[in-house]
Structures are given as structure tokens and as C-alpha cells.
Hints:
CATH topology of the largest domain: Aminopeptidase
CATH class of the largest domain: Alpha Beta
Oligomer: single chain
Helix content: 25-40%
Number of strands: 18
Strand order of the largest sheet: 1-2-6-3-7-17
Strand content: 25-35%
Bound molecules: zinc ion
Structural class: alpha+beta
Number of domains: 2
Amino acid sequence: xxxxxxxxxxxxxxxxxxxxxxxxxxxxxxxxxxxxxxxxxxxxxxxxxxxxxxxxxxxxxxxxxxxxxxxxxxxxxxxxxxxxxxxxxxxxxxxxxxxxxxxxxxxxxxxxxxxxxxxxxxxxxxxxxxxxxxxxxxxxxxxxxxxxxxxxxxxxxxxxxxxxxxxxxxxxxxxxxxxxxxxxxxxxxxxxxxxxxxxxxxxxxxxxxxxxxxxxxxxxxxxxxxxxxxxxxxxxxxxxxxxxxxxxxxxxxxxxxxxxxxxxxxxxxxxxxxxxxxxxxxxxxxxxxxxxxxxxxxxxxxxxxxxxxxxxxxxxxxxxxxxxxxxxxxxxxxxxxxxxxxxxxxxxxxxxxxxxxxxxxxxxxxxxxxxxxxxxxxxxxx
Length: 382
Ligand SMILES: [Zn+2]
């Protein structure tokens, strides 16, 4: 039944053996960081099989590999997308780059997130390319930079000439179909003070006390969100204070305090409006002066349950999982960048998100075999 399993497994092992750790905000990209080598491997793999490949240079250590299979109808294009980069390897209990096959599982960094989806999509694409032209244009995007700021997907969207009408994002969903996930706003908040010796606090102004008021308000805001209307697939929004930094010496009042709050937002919410809402809430409820620093925004994603991609994909994965309607996810994906550009996206792929980023990351081989069949069958029925 699974005539591609051998090649998918050996392909996955090859992909794991090529380190492609996301450098996040490192200035020098070397060693295990960056995706140059894996992008080269994937493009070579497709070229050897006579497929049309483009490598996009997104930034230092960040690339996209784009594979195009022309369809009979060039006015529509389905994109299959999986990311090449992985999270870091700190505290791993297994050799991250020496893939091991044990009891039907493949172990290694990225085995689950996201090289299982990468290898399944690659094998499915190769199989489809051997047949007659598909109904619509097909593009496979091996994206870079997903684990930090999804800049690969963003670059692809801004630099492509395809008529994209739908995107299948491969991430470890246990082959379940995800049509929505939250977005996030990570907002730095700064309070300023006046430094003084701790034995004469009356000569200073303590920014930590100001920040304490802000943090109490964030907790109030969190309670409000918990009691607000839940999204049908995503429950309620959440907000937490996740970082607080101030002071270096125990006998000195510092001159500033910085915190970060992490607000997970529902689809439809925009960065500017959310920031304003949070700022006004804090301003209205405290006399402490504060300012907003850096903001990191990731978009939510939502595709309507009656979208044709959702309906078609639910027919395909039904062979392996019993799922009648699409679900929501707690994590973000490249799909959010497409959603921001009004392109519908769904997420489905092999492996369990519980194993992603872990110290002994693995994926079940049968998950990959089933994913290949789902992707192939979906393309055949476009
Ligand atoms: Zn991922």
C-alpha cells in the first residue's frame, strides 16, 4: 500500500542529518544554524528528478525552496508548504543530527517538526510529477525562518507570480485538519525611574513599583479575557506577563524596568487595534507612567469551515482519522502569513505536536506514510 515508505524514511533521515537550526536573532550565522545546506539538498533532490526548482534568498541563513508543477489550469494554484528550520538543540537527550529508527519511530531534531511534513510533501510531489499534469498549478514551498518570524513565507507571498487560491501547511497535527489558530502580540512595556542607593530610597523613583501596578492590571485583563466569549475552535484569548527585568545590584534602585506580555489573539484581530486597546486599558487604570517598547506580532489564521479545501481535505484524512469538522490549534504556522494576504490556508501533517521541540523528538513512520497518501490523493482530486 505504501510504496513510497522506504524513500520517505531515508529522505527524512537525510533531512534530520542536515542541521537547520533557526538562528533567531543571532548576528553571526554558522555551524548548526541557518538553512543553506538543507535548502541546497532539497533543491538538488528535486532537480535530480527533473522538477522546476527556484531557491529564494530571503536573508542571511534563510531561504525558500520553491518547486513548481504546471497544471492544466494556470489560473489557480495550490501551495503545499512545510518549513526547513528547527528549534535549537539545548538539553536534548538524543543525538539531534544522527537519526535513529527504533520501533517504527524516527528520532532526531526536526523529525516531527517539521521534517516529517517536508519529506511527506516531497515524496507526494515527486509521485504526482510522474503522472499527467494536475488540474491546477501546484507549488511546493520549503520555507525558511518559520520558527522565529515566518519571514520565508512572507517573502514567498511578496515575490511570487502564481494565482494562489489555497495553501496546505504541513505541521504535526496527527493528520487532523486544522483550520484556525490564534495569533500573538508580544509587547514590551517599559517603566522609568530614578536610580538611587537603596539606603536612601527617598532620593530615587523605583520603576519596579510602577511595573508592579502594570502587572496587576495584566492579571485583571487576563481575567476579563477568560470570561469573554470563546471562539468556537480556539476557546478564549489569553494574556500573560512572561518576562520582567530590572536591577543588577541589590543595594541600588534601578532606573528602568522592562516586561513583556504575551497576548494570544483571535482571528480577525489586528496589531494596531490590539495595542491601542491594551495601552488605553493600562492608562485608564493606573497613575503609573509607562511606555510601550518593541512589539512582535504574529497573525492568527482562520479559514471558513465550508471552504472547499476544508471539505476536500476532510474527505482525504477520513481514511485515517475520524474527524467530521475542522479543529483549532494553540500554535502558530506559516498559514498565518497567507491569511494576512487573504489566501485561505489549512494545516495538516504527520506527527504529534506533543513531540515537537522536545528533548527526544520523534515521529511515527506510519504517520508519514499516511500523510503521503493524503497529500497525493488530495492533489489527484483537485
Ligand atoms: Zn513547525
